[in-house]
């Protein structure tokens, strides 16, 4: 007995210690990218942003020359659409993951862009398209050459076409014939999917990621992450268990190389499924899978709500996100991107809507993404194909638009005469000035940048209201999406005084016995720090 009592006592002490303060998980690397929480990201299609040599195509030197504009706008980080070597204009079919597309410059040009961006405090993430390669990639050429080829199992082959069609609909087949066999390519035959069941493929993608991280990039936007594995027709080409398994492995490799980097997943689906791509926060703070995912459902609700003048579905979506996303992860809200019809076209004849949408986006938690040109109201081109969503940036109203001294690779979108950087920079009432103001307000408030979100009761269908809180700072945010003036509230919130951070055409909130009341004009937004 005398020998067992100390042992039992020690066990009890250890159990008590574990109950109150669990030890850190040994051997598990953690994310260290708190810089991304609240950061404003800016998506750039390099081909359409700024041309330095007059060949009509944007390039890395041109982008580098415009970094001061992005700094003045308030951008914290850039997302570069594909910049690796590719035979296409868009770059989503890579032929060499280690070499910059010659249309955009050289690897040395990329290094200079990184250095100049970092010198200005701007981070840079790049599009990493690892779901598939180009059919012109040397790996695929070898893979298709023979069943005994070295890279045969780097792609998915079978003897027949099982007749699968894309999981998003349509009649196109996802299996394609080559040299008497069929390979899998969920998008089209020119983009054969890599086989992530092959360990060598997994190792290669991790090696390439580490190479660019060591070079200085601050993370990756991961294309088509839902489709890394396909186990059958229809929805079995989406969100398979093996996909989550590999992404956890890939994220661990990235964290081990550069824990300060970020990964942003393109998971174009519904909120409950997106929530699963964060993985578990039990061992890795922020999630052991993808620490950020684009919020496609929220973007759709914001645009639809602004169009309709009704905030109810935006409110409901934000409540769903709060309920389903793991605690402490970083959302990636946006309005449009390179696959969407541009916001100015979707909100035609509604300039107030452009301001409302921007104000909603830039007062939400997470890391908001702006699509290049969105800040000047860049419209879509007059057609439905993707190029019309990716037209050259209008820097001024000249024939070359300040984009190039030559002939632009693609025509400017309509409205260039007034929707351009030069014209709007000189106008304090312009959309560009509104974006700058919103971003300054965001940067100036810890609650807006990094605080939590609490939705306030939707007392009027045209009002979206919430509170952002960080430490002792409490910020009330109210947006009126309607076409008429509205009195919002009362909101039962602590505080005796409201400090105005942003208010256009509205008076400061009034404190009543029932709570704070706010009067907002049609399309108005207000942000107040409650003290």
Can you lay out the helices and strands and say which pair or pack?
Blueprint: H1 4-20, E1 41-44, H2 60-65, H3 67-73, E2 77-80, E3 84-85, E4 96-100, H4 107-119, E5 123-128, H5 138-145, E6 157-158, E7 175-178, E8 181-184, H6 199-215, E9 219-222, H7 241-257, E10 262-265, H8 271-276, E11 292-294, H9 296-308, H10 312-324, E12 330-332, H11 343-346, H12 351-361, E13 369-371, H13 421-425, H14 431-443, H15 446-450, E14 452-455, E15 463-470, E16 473-480, E17 486-491, E18 498-503, E19 510-511, E20 516-520, E21 525-530
Parallel strand pairs: 1-2, 1-13, 2-5, 5-9, 9-10, 10-11, 11-12
Antiparallel strand pairs: 3-4, 6-8, 7-8, 14-15, 15-16, 16-21, 17-20, 18-21, 19-20
Can you put this structure into words, describing what you see?
- The chain is an alpha/beta fold and 531 residues long.
- It has 15 helices and 21 strands.
- It has an eight-stranded parallel β-sheet, with helices on one face. A five-stranded antiparallel β-sheet has the order 14-15-16-21-18.
- The protein is globular, with a radius of gyration of 25 Å.
- It starts with a helix and ends with a strand.
- The N terminus is likely disordered.
Approximate strand percentage: 15-25%
Task: State the major sheet.
Answer: 8 strands, parallel
Estimate percent helicity.
Answer: 25-40%
Rg over CA atoms, rounded to whole Å, is 25 Å
Strand line-up in the sheet with most strands: 12-11-10-9-5-2-1-13
How far from one another are the termini? 62 Å
Shape: globular
Number of helices: 15
**Total beta strand runs:** 21
Q: What are the low-pLDDT stretches, counting only 5+ consecutive residues below 50?
A: 1-24
Query: What's the rounded overall pLDDT mean?
Result: 94
- Report the oligomer: single chain
Class from secondary-structure proportions: alpha/beta
